Amino acid sequence: MARETTGVDSGWNPSGGHARVFSGHESFTCRYGWLPKLYEAVQHDEQLFANDERAILTLGLGKNMVKAIRFWGQVFGLLALQRGLAKNTELARRLLDAEVGLDPYLEDPGSLWRLHWMVTVHAGLGAWVSTFLELQDAQITRDRLINVVRNRAVAARGSVTQRTATTHVDILLRTYDWARMDAAAAGEDASGCPFQELHLIETSSVNAHTQVSVKRGPKPQLNVGAFAFALNDYWQGTAADSQSLSLRSLLVGRRSPGVVFRLDEGSLFAYLEELCSVSDIQLRSDGAGGMDVVGDRHVQKHLEEVAWPGN
Question: CA-to-CA distance for 44 and 38, rounded, in angstroms?
Fold first, then answer.
């Protein structure tokens, strides 16, 4: 019987931004086609994960891959397991449903940015928290990143083995390393993962060490809808009773769009200007040399309309 869990914490749970999960992916990245396949399978059978044989037969995957697809569905906020039943979340319906979903086949990079937001901000995956929320280095060696993740594990749960930490970090790199797309195109053995299309991480070999680059700056494939989705979640999670947020908090605040999407000040400002042009959100001077993003009492509704057009 599958362990019962609701996966990603609902709402803005403080634990979502802290490293607490270091395994569960069975050494598999989330592959092309997995999440739409999972959504359709759960729509037709809420008892999909009642036993291994049922899931293996329905999904057409091996036992370990079944565990992996269930893991990724949960940490992306698309799947919940409740009392032994599998449930597609509201986010899954709005994104993947064949009739009303924004992007049923995950063909739009903006959808991947939304899922990157969810797994980074809410899932508590050790390598994701360390890389995207805590370390602000433009470059870090793979070995140092592994050590950082092991240290976070000690703080969270006592310890993990070197092998577990290494596997977990390598899953992060295989998920995002866009250099692997070139390797795949050249016919080399590379693990294809849709999140490589976001160009968030690049690895290279320097003096026999793997160098990991995570650079701030414009993200051409991040569209205003995905940005509004993230901004709305951050706003409701950190300042639900406020009608304004400072530009600085959006740039450097923990679990903020600027940090999670690795935006610099210029690119963040450009997204906010675009958002203001298609909604009732405004940018205003705070009177002290800074800028605020300002809405009204319907700010959540305004952001929802941009994030989910026609949905």
Answer: 10
Arithmetic mean of pLDDT over the chain: 92
Ranges of H-type helices in 129-264: 142-157, 162-176, 179-185, 224-238, 247-252, 257-260
Query: Residue 189: its pLDDT value, please?
Result: 43
Rounded to an integer, what distance in angstroms lies between the CA atom of residue 100 and that of residue 95? 8
* Residue of 304, 225, 285 whose CA lies nearest to 257: 225
Binning pLDDT at 50, 70 and 90, where does residue 186 land?
A: very low
CB 66 within 8 A of CB 73: no
Residue 192 tokens, joined: 């294809």
* Residue range 118-136: mean pLDDT, rounded: 96
* Of 227, 222, 236, 217, residue with least CA distance to 295: 236
**What is the C-alpha separation between 262 and 134, in angstroms, rounded?**
12
